[in-house]
Design a protein that fits this description.
Blueprint (H helix, E strand, L loop, with lengths): L30 E6 L6 H5 L5 E7 L4 H10 L4 E5 H9 L12 E16 L15 E3 L6 H12 L8 E3 L6 H6 L5 E6 L4 H8 L3 E2 L5 H9 L3 E6 L11 E13 L4 H13 L21 H12 L2
Parallel strand pairs: 1-2, 5-6, 5-7
Antiparallel strand pairs: 3-10, 4-7, 4-8, 4-10, 9-10
Helix pairs in contact: 8-9
């Protein structure tokens, strides 16, 4: 799943000094932001109101890996992504490419992407081990979910010849599950998800992603978070569902100037909706090094408390 550029709506307030939540005065940011269309469709209009900053959609985007590759090569200089893909890319541990993405820098942890295991109404699955012999989507191509599920199945002792694995885009999940074309699907969404709501109205069920192998897996991959989907979050969900989550991140290219990064974060945290208050305790906890402008922002926020 591709992260939306959550700070787009907040950037309007950069033009007003009253929006600043930090004690330090910064000079007006100057430069150009380059991003993919999937990072935020309305970002260009919002940034047009800010003097000195130009915004350009330069890529159609796509998977999490594609978005980070655009950032690494300089095609874009700001993007949303997920913590696991960012960590593996920075460390040079992606299976698709093993060169370190040394230009990636963290800006903020912005939320949580929750993994859902969806099972068709006519399929009997109660635990992860019951997936053997079934047709299962392991996540959209190039997605964070696809990377996690591959490692998960290995830890569970489920080999590639014991399931009929597919990589299905999220847009196809509801129709493929409800028709019985696939038996189960892993996918990551923010909670609640409109896709999951639609699927559950058609009889699809949620199954926990839980058990000792999952806990052991988390000790080796610290970017995996234990989380809970509260009961009643989705139609016909009488019990809470234990599962995994991965932090969503705002990241940028190392060469992006400090003042722009500082100003973007200042606007983002100053204008979060009241229903989603900012978590400034977790925001700096990116699994890759913080950009200097971001580090200065969090340091100044701490000093001003």
């Amino acid at each position: 799943m591709t992260l939306r550029f959550y700070c787009a709506a907040g950037l309007v307030c950069l033009a007003a000094s009253s929006c600043s939540g930090a004690a330090e005065t910064t000079s007006a940011p100057r430069g150009s932001l380059r991003f993919s269309r999937t990072t935020g469709n309305d970002l260009q209009t919002t940034l047009a109101r800010l003097p000195g900053i130009k915004a350009n959609v330069v890529s159609e985007g796509g998977s999490s890996i594609t978005s980070l590759l655009d950032l690494q090569t300089g095609k874009t200089n700001i993007s949303g992504t997920l913590a696991d893909v960012a960590y593996l890319a920075y460390a040079g541990q992606l299976e698709e490419m093993n060169e370190p993405f040394d230009q990636l820098r963290g800006m903020a942890v912005t939320g949580l992407n929750t993994m859902h295991l969806l099972v068709g109404s006519n399929t009997r699955v109660e635990t992860l081990g019951d997936l053997k012999g079934l047709r299962v989507s392991l996540g959209a191509p190039g997605s964070s979910t696809a990377h996690i599920t591959q490692r998960m199945l290995q830890d569970l002792g489920i080999s590639s010849d014991q399931i009929r694995a597919e990589r299905i885009p999220n847009a196809e999940l509801v129709s493929r599950l409800s028709s019985g074309d696939i038996n189960a699907a892993f996918s990551g969404f923010s909670v609640p998800s409109a896709t999951v709501i639609a699927a559950m109205h058609k009889g699809v069920r949620l199954v926990p992603i839980d058990g000792p192998p999952i806990e052991e897996m988390r000790t080796r991959y610290p970017y995996l978070k234990r989380t809970l989907i509260p009961r009643g979050t989705y139609p016909n969900q009488p019990e809470p569902i234990r599962t995994l989550g991965v932090d969503t991140l705002l990241v940028c290219r190392a060469e992006l100037d400090d003042e722009t990064v500082y100003a973007l974060l200042d606007a983002y945290f100053a204008t979060r909706p009241a229903t989603t208050p900012p978590n400034l305790e977790r925001a700096p906890a990116t699994p890759i090094p913080l950009h200097p402008g971001a580090a200065r922002y969090y340091r100044q926020r701490e000093l001003s408390r």
